[in-house]
Structures are given as structure tokens and as C-alpha cells.
């Protein structure tokens, strides 16, 4: 895997694989705090015992049943911080396209950071993305994807996996390579455009794969607030735009999204 990913002039400079850890995100954030790590470090775990999603929710899966990895990025050189909110969405595009290409499985994205598959005609969450500041201009982006989990191994009944969605391949090595190559490609385009998601095609690519757009959704916002409306767009800052019954278009920059029905 290192030979396939680490190359002169490429993004990925170091690929470490560990058998078991609490959280690859926590480990990489801690390593970054100990001393300045170069951009492009990848940490992969066969098993995570304390993986976290958004709002510190736990992500639990059996050993060797999924992709569990984190990467260290340093977009500060040339990309304004206000555009860093695109990093989870950018990663989502790379994950969805990589899984489709290498696994032969249809995927979709739920704003802002979930990867969906279809199991028995129902949308199921098969993966999640978590971006965290790592200090000193770094961002650690973690990805967890259920690959080979059987129905009796799912953490909750509403979860899914690539295997349950009918993937033609559940070999994690080519899946991970496809995702990381896609991430390198999109990150390079985005950085070259100064973080302008519209100019580099990222905004259009995300919208094309986003299952949230065109749906009536409930946004559960900080401060115990909620907003219901049709998700009509993702704007240039990566925010979800909701058209409410009051005739107002409201941007949502952070919050949990519940899909209520198709648009």
C-alpha cells in the first residue's frame, strides 16, 4: 500500500497501519501536537475501540470489518480558513467515488458528513467523516466505513455496509487506495483554486452526489433549535440552504440533518 500511495511529488508522504487503537483521529491530533508533522500523513487501523463521529458519538465495528483511517492536511498555505469547511464535503466526494469505483456499489452523500448506501430499498448510513483542528494550521480528517459487516454485526439496525448493499468487492486494500487517490486528486484541485469549490468543480460534484438536496429535511441546530425546509442548494461556503415554508432561504452551517421525505 505504501508503494502504491507514497510517491515523489504526491500528497501522501507516510502511511502507518496499526492493528488496534482507540481513535485514529485522536492519535493523529496528538502526534501533531507533539511536533509539527508534515502534511500527508495517513494513519490506518484494523480496529478502533473508541472511534468518534460528530458530537462525540461512538463508532463501533468488529476488527477488519471496515475502513478506519485519518489523514493530516495543512490547507493554510493558500486556502483561507473560512473555506476549510469544505474539507469534510471534499472527503465525502472522494469516499463516495472511490467506493463506487473499487467496490462497484452505489453510494450517496448526506450533508454534511455521512456516506449512504441502499439496503433492501432503504437508505442506510455506511460511513462517516469527522474533521478536527490539529493545531499549528493542521486539520485531521477521519473516515470510517462499514465494509463487510453482516446484518447481525451492525451497531444499530439503521446502519448499513458495502456488503449488505451488494458491493462486488469488499477487499479493503483497493477500496482504501481508491479513496485516498480520489482524496489526493480533489484536495489538489481545491488547493490550486484557493479553496474555491465552485471554480475547481467540487461544489458541482458534491451536489450531484448529495442525497439531501431536493428533500424536505429537519435541521437540528445548536441551542436546541430546529428548522424544517427543502434542501435546495449547497452554497460556496459548503452550507446547506433550506427553503422554509415562510419563503425564506436559510443557510445551515452546522447541525444534524434528518431526511423527512423526498422533494
From TrEMBL:
Keywords: Biotin, Ligase. It is an enzyme of class 6 (ligase). The keyword Protein biosynthesis does not apply. CDD domains: BPL. GO terms for molecular function: ligase activity. Its EC number is 6.3.4.15. Signal peptide: none annotated. PROSITE patterns: BPL_LPL_CATALYTIC (PS51733). Residues 10-191 form the BPL/LPL catalytic domain. Gene3D superfamilies: 2.30.30.100, Bira Bifunctional Protein, Domain 2. This is biotin--[biotin carboxyl-carrier protein] ligase. It comes from Streptomyces prasinosporus.
